Every structure is written in C-alpha cells, then in structure tokens.
Amino acid sequence: MLHGGVGGQSQHSGILDTYAKESILRKSALDAVVDSVVKMEDNPIFNAGTGSYMRIDGSIQMDAAVMTESGLGSVIAVEKIRNPVLLAKDVMEKTPHLIMSGDGAVRLARFLGYAEYNPVTEKAIEQMEKYRSSKLERDVENERYRSLKAMGDISPLERSTDTVGEVAYINGKFAAAVSTGGATPMLRGRVGDSPLPGSGIYCGNKGAVVATGYGEEIIKHLLCYRVYERIGSDDLSTIMQDLTADFKGPVGLIAVSATECKSYSNKPMPVGYFERNE
Ligand code: GLY
C-alpha cells in the first residue's frame, strides 16, 4: 500500500494503484517500497524528490527513510540529488550508520556516484511566490517567533504535506519507505517526522507503518511506533483512528500487519493498493 500524502488529490490514487502493482513484482518487501517511492519522487505531482516544495529561503531540502525488520537508513535535509530514498537505502546497506544529514549525506551521495540534480519545479516556484505574498511570510520576515508559533495554525495557508510512502509485506517480510520535501512553510534546517524512526516510519516483525501530515505533531506523538506497538491488540483502523483522535492538523497513516493492510487519514489522501496471495 502506498500514499501520495494527506491533503493530496484523490484522483492520484489510480497512478498509485499502478505503482503498487508494479512494486509487488520486486523480489523483496524492501525493493518493493523503494521502487514505488522512487517513482513518486520522479513524478512532480508529489512533494518528494522532483516536485519537493521549497523552504522559506528558496532552497529545497529533502528527507527520506527506509526501514525493514532489522535495518534502518535515513537521510535528513539532503540537497541536489534526484532520489533521496535511494540514498537512505545506501545509508542502511553501505555504511555503518543509520541516519546521515546535510552536507555529510550529500558528500556520501557524491562518493557513491549520485549526480548533481536540481529538483526545482514550476509548482515549487508558484508555491513559494504564494507564500511570499501571504501574511505568514511577512510575519516570518518581521517576527520570527510569532510566525513559528503561527505555523501551528495551518488552516488558512493550504499547507502542502504530500509526503509519500509505502508499506509492504512480501514473502513473510515487512518493509517501509518514506520521502518528502517537507511541510511548507518551513525554515531551512527544519526536520519533519519522515526521517525519524518511530515518528514518520516504523517497521518490525509485527508490521510496517508510515505517516504523512503535520510533522511536528507526528513527532510529538511518536506516531508510527505507537501504532506499531498496538498491532494485534485491535484492528488497524481502530488503532490508527484512536492514536490520531486529538491531532491538530492533517494526518494520514498506512499500515500493514500479517493479516491486514489499512489506511486512515483525517483529510483526503490518495492511496494505492495491490494484493496478491500465493
Ligand atoms: N510529514 C512531512 C513533514 O512534516 O515534513
């Protein structure tokens, strides 16, 4: 199952179904989730990879993570690469580390042969121009602390939180992957939930969970781990609904266990799904 971000457009579910169907052809759950997330990063309609939104200073910094039952790879605030999720997988498989950030992560990417790439799109430029002419942007320039507090009230700002993610259960193994350009408006250096294990992603031998939405709120709730730890105590829909009941702002989740695969969101969220039983 994959999602194109809470607040995204439901008509994108068709393309996500196709990605889900294609990803199940991969050999492992990890390869499946990475395959789909690469496709979403390369599709500019999503806020990840090409199509990522800009920070307030006009830069694009992207976060991504992959997790399996035994491994984790995560990258924070990486710039000028095409597929952050591939770098997250490389962190997991080719380094002794779990999480890499900023210039060190980009240096690793170049060492591994990732070409320099500009992910800026017309969509990102339009979004930035919209914010530059909005009240919030003036507040950020004039009164930093007040504006940061105001970032909690997202309703008038059409905040875009189209993080992408996938969970998979293939041949008895679980995996999860996420990627995002972040939740606009945001300062350079701000870190959301997506690259933080337990917050925006979690995977273990009971299942896999990824989140989308208001990152600060997801981090405070340690949302994905809390969903994961309750797997088996109730049905997935009830667990996800319970744990997001007091959320301020948009939130979405997808989760898979050995017996269920479900999505939940408090705003529209495109979801793709494919199941094959052998
Ligand atoms: N959920 C993505 C973010 O807050 O960065």
Short description:
With 278 residues, the chain is an alpha+beta fold. Helix content is 34%, strand content 21%.
SSE layout and pairings?
Blueprint: E1 2-3, H1 13-23, H2 29-42, E2 62-68, E3 72-78, H3 84-94, E4 99-101, H4 102-111, H5 122-132, H6 135-142, H7 144-150, E5 164-170, E6 173-180, E7 201-204, E8 207-213, H8 215-221, H9 223-229, H10 236-243, E9 251-257, E10 261-265, E11 271-272
Parallel strand pairs: 3-4
Antiparallel strand pairs: 1-5, 1-11, 2-3, 2-6, 5-6, 7-8, 8-9, 9-10
Structure description:
This protein has 278 residues and is an alpha+beta fold. The protein is 34% helix and 21% strand. The protein has one domain (2-272): (Glycosyl)asparaginase (Glutamine Phosphoribosylpyrophosphate, subunit 1, domain 1, 4-Layer Sandwich), CATH 3.60.20.30. It starts with a strand and ends in a 6-residue tail after the last strand. Glycine binds next to β8.
Average residue pLDDT: 89
By DSSP (H or I, 4+ residues per run), the number of helices equals: 10
User: Beta-strand percentage?
Assistant: 15-25%
Q: Taking strands numbered 1, 2, ... along the chain, how are they ordered across the largest sheet?
A: 4-3-2-6-5-1-11
The CATH homologous superfamily: (Glycosyl)asparaginase
Bound small molecules, deduplicated:
glycine
Roughly how many Å apart are the termini?
Answer: 17 Å
